[in-house]
Amino acid sequence: MSLTFTMPSVDEITTRYGPLRTVLADSGPVDIQPQHDDVYSLEILGGKTLRESAINGETGPVLIIRLVEYVDPVTRAELYGVEKWSVVGFRTVDHWVRLVSETEYERLVRAEFADPTLPMGRERFTGGLATFYDATDVL
Fold it and tell me: CB 3.0-4.6 Å disulfide test: which of 14, 47, 100, 104 passes with 95?
């Protein structure tokens, strides 16, 4: 006998706890004031990494999806951010409820596998997420 737990979707979770806030992005709207970009970047980069998935190239990472715990530099509240950084762009969202950010992290990791934003060789797809990412904690 085995148990299978299903994660609620991002839509289901945000209906209950409110939407994710877009903190940083290379394009498109964000929900913080532009003059706060640098302090948010520093806090998120210095935050505690809780989960991470990465794809490495010849000279280093080409894609990182990371769940991070950090302190909002304006409100001083503890938040959970999900950042997706790649050689083609970046976007960071956050929420005060960890489950909302965990769900978004899982969604981003699976979405990148389903529809890659970077060109990938066929060998990356032979074993699912385990071979697609060089490091991941999503099963």
Answer: 100
